[in-house]
Design goal:
single chain; about 130 residues; mainly alpha; two-stranded antiparallel ribbon; 3 helices
Length: about 130
C-alpha cells in the first residue's frame, strides 16, 4: 500500500509541475513568511508546496499503521486463544460433572448393596 501511495504522490507532483510551467505569467502571487516576502511566485508552486507539506506530515502515520495492525492482530489472536481455552475447560468441567452424575445414578442404594453383598456371601443351592 505505501508503495502505491508514494507512486501516486510522485505522479501528482510531476503533473502539477508540468501544468504549472505551462501556465505562463498570468497566475502569480506574493508569499509572505513574516520576515521575508517572495514576489511573483507562480500559484501552482504554492499549491504544490502545500501538497508536499501535507504528504510529509502524513507519511509517518502511513508507515506506522502496519506495525499497529500487526500488534492488534496478535492481541486478537491471543484473546481468541484464551477464549477457546476457557470454552474447552468449561466443556471438560461439564463432562466431568456429567460423568459424576452418571456414576452416582449407577451406584446401588443401601438396600440393594446389602442385598447384593448377602447374595454374594451365601452358599449356592444345590438341587
Amino acid at each position: 500500500m505505501p508503495l502505491k501511495l508514494i507512486g501516486t504522490v510522485i505522479l501528482l507532483v510531476i503533473v502539477t509541475i508540468f501544468c504549472g510551467l505551462n501556465i505562463g505569467e498570468a497566475n502569480r502571487c506574493d508569499i509572505n513568511l513574516l520576515f521575508k516576502t517572495f514576489h511573483g511566485v507562480p500559484a501552482f508552486l504554492t499549491v504544490l508546496i502545500s501538497f508536499l507539506a501535507g504528504v510529509l506530515v502524513m507519511i509517518p502515520f502511513t508507515f506506522g499503521k502496519k506495525k499497529l495492525r500487526e500488534q492488534e492482530k496478535e492481541a486478537q489472536k491471543k484473546a481468541l486463544a484464551e477464549k477457546q481455552k476457557a470454552k474447552e475447560e468449561a466443556k471438560a468441567k461439564k463432562a466431568e460433572e456429567k460423568a459424576k452424575k452418571a456414576a452416582k445414578k449407577n451406584q446401588p442404594t443401601k438396600k440393594e448393596a446389602v442385598a447384593q453383598s448377602s447374595e454374594a456371601n451365601t452358599v449356592p443351592k444345590v438341587l
